[in-house]
Each structure stands twice: as structure tokens, then as C-alpha cells.
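Posted in: Protein Modeling Q&A

I'm a second-year student putting together a small comparison for a lab meeting, and my supervisor asked me to include a predicted structure for Alginate lyase family protein. I've never done this before, so apologies if this is the wrong subforum. The sequence is pasted below exactly as I got it from our records. If anyone can share the C-alpha cell output, I'd also love a short note on what stands out.
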Amino acid sequence: MIRRPFPFRTVMQAVLSAVCLAAGLVVCLAAPAPAGVNLPQTIVLSPEVLYQSRQRILAREGAVRTAMAALKASADAAMLVPVEPVTAKGRSGSGLPVREYRSLAPYWWPDPKSRTGLPYVRRDGERNPEADSDRYDRKRLTRMAMTVRTLALAWYFTGNQLYAARASAHVRAWLCAPATRMVPNLEHAQMRPGLDQGNRTGIIETAALIPVCDAIRLLEPSKAWTGEDSRRAREWFGKYLFWLLRSEQGRAEAAALNNHGTWFDAQVAAFALFRGDRELAREVAGMAGNRRIATQILPDGSMPRELARTRPRHYTFFNLEALMVLASVGERCGLDLWHWATPTGQSIRRALDRNGPHLDPADPLSGTGADDFDPYPYVPLFRRAALVYNDTRYLDYLVPLDEQTLARETSFIAY
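Accepted answer (user: helix_wrangler)
Welcome! Here is the predicted structure, written out as C-alpha cells:
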């Protein structure tokens, strides 16, 4: 199910990971649940699809047995992942409080012309491995999110309280326990040594918390998660939202015209809905059409600001992913961003249609040349599109991909 132990993947992949379903079953799972059924109160994960999948598992259908075995194997591995909150890094000589989140800007490197390496210089698209070291929190946060997501889903599908207890321990350490919980700001995210102690671009890193919100919603009925846990988690997200919306960094990131701005909105909308502020979630999702789709997607479905990057395909699909998170939040608030379009056709669907053929690693975007692109994290976007638009054509874009890798990487439930 996972090629490497808990690698950093995109948010949508983290949110979607659950049960491997054959491509022919994806669309039929979109059927509504029977009236009176208690659906999970998830935000990005589809409550209906989760429910239908669990019914298949409870019925011991042969089509899902292999998938459940894979999920349980991943959950058993996740049980062994240590609980490492933001305090696990220690002070590392930074002089900052240990509960402050710290990360290094990934595309910034020591200056080879400088004796001290300072100030760091930008090499766009080239990831500095120092950013993933244990001195910083980004990899640790991502690992927690992946672990919690896997365990919460395993609890939901199996009812095994051990999975719920372990997932709860991770979330409590990061968001609830006074001694270890992260300070709810990103004042020191994506630091650029020699230049600053934090940058507004670091806000994109807490997109990893979107699947944690869904995981908490799944955990709430378990014996391992308490009402006090929910209160403290909602309190944490309330404080973090206040910082996002009021801080200089947050305002600057909200004004970004590319994927950074889209992911800012996706986070605000998802976190607001999680803590019960439906009005704010609906407001942000409702503005996404004119604010993000119309300004970032051309009538032909391309995204010029993402195409200008050194990894154009990655950033094109990454931005599309954020738009689909916003559409999922909007769906919970009675809005339909999936079918929103400008008079000239700028829409999520147009972007899917334009870029779907380029999911094939051998088919780079026109005019951009070959690039370092891993398509598998974005496979769930097209499975979701097949559900939303009731169109299996979106599954055809998966045909060029390696079948064995696809079987591992797309062990997901369409959200």
C-alpha cells in the first residue's frame, strides 16, 4: 500500500487513503446511504462513501478482502510509529521555545560562495535535504498526519479500539496536551537562514492537518477519544485560525495568487468547519470561484502561474488538489464548486480535462519539457472526478500508469 514508510505525500492522498477498490466499483459507491443512517461527520472524506465501504467490509465481500488486509497491515505498522510531538526536536540551539513549530524553506541552500553559507540562496525546485532533518518539525508533522489518518480509518473499518487509542495519543500530543502541544502559529516556518526566522510561505505546511481533522471526526465515537479531547482540539484550531486570519504572514499568504493562496483558503475553510464555524467555512468556499478558479485557471484549463515553476506539472496538480479540497468543504456547506464555471468555461472540471492526459509521466505539459514528476499522489483526484461527474472517462487517465505501482499507490477510497 505504501512504497516507503510514511513518506510525505499530498494532502488529498493522505485524506483519501483507505480501502483499495477496483476501478469499476468507484462510481457505484457514490450511491446515497439509506435514510436514518448515522454517517461519519467527516469534512473532506465523503461520509457516504465511507459508510458504503464499511458496509461492504462488514458483508465480507471478496472485492474488498485484499484491500482490508493491506489497510490492516499499514495500520499495524503505524501502531509502531513513536508519538513525537513538536517538542521532540528539542531546542536545537535555536533559542526558541520548544513548542514553537520550526521548519526550513525547502528550496533554500547554503551559499557556496560564502564562508559561513549565509545567507541561504534559492534553488527553486531543488529540495534541500536539511529541511527534512529532525532539527525541524515539517517531516514530523507530516508523519503524524499520515499515521493518524491510517489508524483512524483502520478503527472506523474494523472497530479495533487499539487503533483508535494510538491515533488519539498522537493527536493529543500535538494539539491537546499543554506540555507538548504546538503553539498555534507558524511564526518560524520555512526559515531562510541569514535572511529571516520564518516566512509566510510556511503556512502551506499545516495543510497536513486537514486529514487530521477528518481523523478526529472518525475517532469521536471511539472509547479512546473523549469530549475533553474534542474541546481542546477545537480550541487549538480556533486559536490557529485567529492567527491565520489576523497575522501579517497569514494576510500575505491569503493574497498569494498561486497554489499558496488556494491552500490558505483550503485550510481556513476546513479548519473552520471542523471547529463548528460553518459560516466562515461557507464564506471562504463560496469565494473560491471568483477568487481562485477564475483568477488561476484559463479557459483552456491551464494554470500559467504554476506552469512558470521549475516543476510545472507538480504544481499544476498540487493547485488542483487544493481546489478540490475547497469543493469538498463547499459540498458540506451546500455549495457546488464542482460545477462552478465562468462564462468562458474556467472551472475545476476544465482543469481536470486539460491536465488529465499529462498524468502520464511520458507526456509533459506542452512547452514545459521533461520534468521531475510523480503522478501517483494525484490519482485520487481523478477517482473523485469519476464520482462527482459520474464519468468513468476520468479513470482512463490512469491507464498509462504502471499497474503494479498504481495498485499500491491508489489503495484509496474515493473521498
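A couple of things worth pointing out for your meeting: Confidence is low (pLDDT under 50) at residues 1-30, 409-415. The longest strand covers residues 188-191.
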